[in-house]
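ingest -> validate -> predict -> emit
validate: passed (alphabet ok, no gaps, 188 aa)
predict: started
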Amino acid sequence: MATRKYSARRVGSAALSLLLATATMTLAARQRRLEAARLAEQRLAERRLELEELAIRRKALAHQQRMHWELLARAIDDPSLAAVIDTYDKSIPAEKRRQFFYANAWYVHLFHLYRAGILDRDELYRYLREFFQSPLFREYWEASQAQRATLSESSDEAVIGHIVDGLVTDLDEADTDEWWVVGTPPTD
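emit:
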């Protein structure tokens, strides 16, 4: 009889241990699933925040580009306003300086499309390669060299400016009239 009671207790104890181990594993698995779900939700919230910040940045860049264009348009239309921002050599005729303002508006437009992520560097390079077919655009670029020299070397503007300088050199040294194949677009 004592052996039966002892065996029953052993079986009961083993069953209880097995039940306890199963419950512990189930609870641990549940906690892992909850933690994984919490982490996934946290990553989703972080991604949502990143996308919201990107949208705000793009909206701010679009607004800044609109303001830049409006200010330049006023300067192009009114020489007395152009005098406020005109840092070009005064020996350049007023009409050409107005054309430089317009060329700058196009350059800044393309630059903002790049910064907003609408164009990648390859696309920006291809557009600029086309714009630099214009002798007037090249004159603008040369005339604005002193303005670019004031940029921080690590800024996006300076980096793109150096890429454009290389493009202009490539175009000048090209042995072909097929300008659309000149140069090697940079990679991001």
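The chain has a mean pLDDT of 85.
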